[in-house]
Amino acid sequence: MPAGYAGKLKALEELVPIVRDLRRQGKRVVFTNGCFDLLHHGHVRYLDQAKALGDVLVVAINSDASVRALKGPDRPVMSHAERSEVIAALAAVDYVLIFEELDPEKLIRALEPDLLVKGGDWPVDQVVGRQIVEGRGGRVCTLPYVEGASSSQLLRRIREGKG
């Protein structure tokens, strides 16, 4: 990963004290997660909107093994190293971490974000970590889903030759 982006990639143990310090400084920490298998305009809009809700955006990316478990044996298309580099290159993203679990509950519990954000295809009551965030006075919100903008749909179009 290029040096300019490498500083954004953190292990959970590194990120916890950083986030605590940012919150002590009065910064509003926004957390989101996903596979981000093939970056597309829906992801970029979503991450820009998520960043606009706070001061610091933390993006957790599913590991290759967890993407396979969630999406099937043909996924991910890009490795978590590649996906994290692409996400880290976005100006809206402050920190990136990779997680092995199928859901981000452990990360949310450890980082205690002020705001938990998911895409509009997730009903708020089904967002993993909602009770943790709301229980400590934070907020959970969903952002508008960009119709037709998903890695699965993009892959289907490519496979059908409709690129």
Spell out the blueprint of helices and strands.
Elements: H1 3-6, H2 12-24, E1 29-34, H3 41-52, E2 56-62, H4 64-71, H5 80-88, E3 95-99, H6 105-111, E4 115-119, H7 130-135, E5 139-143, H8 151-159
Parallel strand pairs: 1-2, 1-4, 2-3, 4-5
**What's the count of strands?**
5
* CATH class term: Alpha Beta
Global Rg: 15 Å
Cα shape:
globular
What would you say this structure looks like, in words?
The chain has 163 residues and is an alpha/beta fold. The chain has a single domain, classed as HUPs (Rossmann fold), CATH 3.40.50. Helix content is 42%, strand content 17%. The longest helix is centred in the first third of the chain and has 13 residues, at 12-24. It starts with a helix and ends with a helix. The model has no long low-confidence stretch (mean pLDDT 89).
Quick rundown:
The chain is of the alpha/beta class. It has eight helices and five strands, in the order ααβαβααβαβαβα. It has a single domain (7-159), classed as Rossmann fold, CATH 3.40.50.
Overview features:
163 residues, five-stranded parallel β-sheet, alpha/beta, globular, 42% helix, Rossmann fold
